[in-house]
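Next comes a single protein record:
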Amino acid sequence: MEKPEKSPLSPEKALYRAAALCSRCEQSEADIRTKLATWGVRPEDAESIIDRLVRENYLNEERYAHAFVRDKFRFGSWGKIKIAYALRQKHIAETHIAEALEEIGEEEYGEALLAALRTKMHSVKGRQPMQQRAALYRFAASRGYESSMISRAISTLLSDSSDDDSW
């Protein structure tokens, strides 16, 4: 059975819904544009809704970038490359991206990479050393960490594990 098509939201209702959405958690302009389109809001109405949300500080791309970086790094263990890529996909300005990424301390960043690699190390245990290294490298690269940092972290991890019988 087909679902009946919903009628588009009025601009007033769409503004109210978008403001409520922005109040619950940070949203990017791209996210709100997508929502407005799915709600059937005309493009010219969507533009005025977004302008008003920005004016009233419901939408703030800089604030969004900082929140996104914090969440993806702390809870998702994403690296800077993957975070920056995701923010670019949401059309966040490069200046906001760079500023938000500076929030991640280098020491904390390195520790997060090592922790992720230690966890992954358990699943590659028993493989040949080159296979281990390759699997760890692919894993860290898929998380968005920089290649030079990955190489150093893997070397540190493998040299530590050769001294440790628990691996």
